[in-house]
């Protein structure tokens, strides 16, 4: 092209300038304008960096170093959790086996401690015979409570009925738990002589032979040998005495009730004393001792009531 070409000098960029503008020359922006004085850095420049918390420079973005370390930390934590989980899984069956063994040992020890007493044991015999003995006492006490004249005697009768009925329930629960029948169909009080080693039970039973209410002022004959003059256990009232008690009222009822109940308590005391010394289980001995204490106090009270009523002591 000649110097006189009309297109010359119109200020068109030279090819070299065009190439520099497209390649991002520092002095020319994308629009062809120079940016030497522009304070903003171009996209191709790195921004100033500042050290982060661990002394490394950071450009404000999450760099490859940070991203890599984050993955490493997460990986290590994940590995720890997985190892802990595997360890816990390994120990679980061991712990279960130990717990099962301890439970089995406890059950075995409990079975030895709470072993049910035998059919002919003092515990079973005492629970059966004392329940029957108590049942008659409750029957007599309710007669006195309903028709007696003396307020003190009626109050004693109420206490006897409530206390001995509750004790019947306790002993009935024992027998059920031991898998034993509630009543004794054989001879009464065999358990008092079966386990004796010093002959004391035979002496006790002989001493109670006269506690059946004969000579107590009830009017029943003694030594007649009739069914109405016999009682199943020492201290218990005879059928004839029970019928007479049911026909009386007022002071006569008070006196007969107190007399019969004192004899009844004495027979029960002998049974309870023996069970408190020879029972196998702690609860048997404990309840028997409580009976001895309560009935001893009640005997003293009833003797005083007889004297107060002008009747002879039983």
Automatic annotation (TrEMBL):
Keyword annotations of the record: Membrane, Transmembrane, Transmembrane helix
Ranges of Basic and acidic residues composition bias in the record: 66-80
Annotated ranges, domain DUF305: 123-304
Top-level division of the source organism's lineage: Bacteria
Pfam families documented for this protein: DUF305
Membrane-spanning intervals of the chain: 88-113
Stretches with biased composition (Gly residues): 210-224
Coiled-coil zones: none
Compositionally skewed regions (Polar residues) per UniProt: 33-49
PANTHER family per record: SLL0788 PROTEIN
Protein name as annotated: DUF305 domain-containing protein
Organism: Frankia umida
